[in-house]
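Page 37, continued from 36.
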């Protein structure tokens, strides 16, 4: 349990949980594709969706590079 106190951030802590087979949803197929060169494809797909009023603004921010997944 000492790794909890020693963890640098949430991602680091989640990595320890994943070592025990606990799914943390930190990494998903979508984020992997986004970060591995399929950014335009992911954003195009997101733009095709029917979303709440807040979601298009968030997608637009991703397109402009303001938000990082």
């Amino acid at each position: 349990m000492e790794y909890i106190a020693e963890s640098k951030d949430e991602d680091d802590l989640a990595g320890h949980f994943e070592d025990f087979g606990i799914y943390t949803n930190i990494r998903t197929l979508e984020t992997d594709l986004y970060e591995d060169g399929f950014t335009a494809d992911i954003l195009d797909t997101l733009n095709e969706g029917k979303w709440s009023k807040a979601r298009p603004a968030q997608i637009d921010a991703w397109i402009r590079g303001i938000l990082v997944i």
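The chain has two domains: 1-27, 37-69. Flag for discussion at group meeting. DSSP finds five helices and no strands in the chain.
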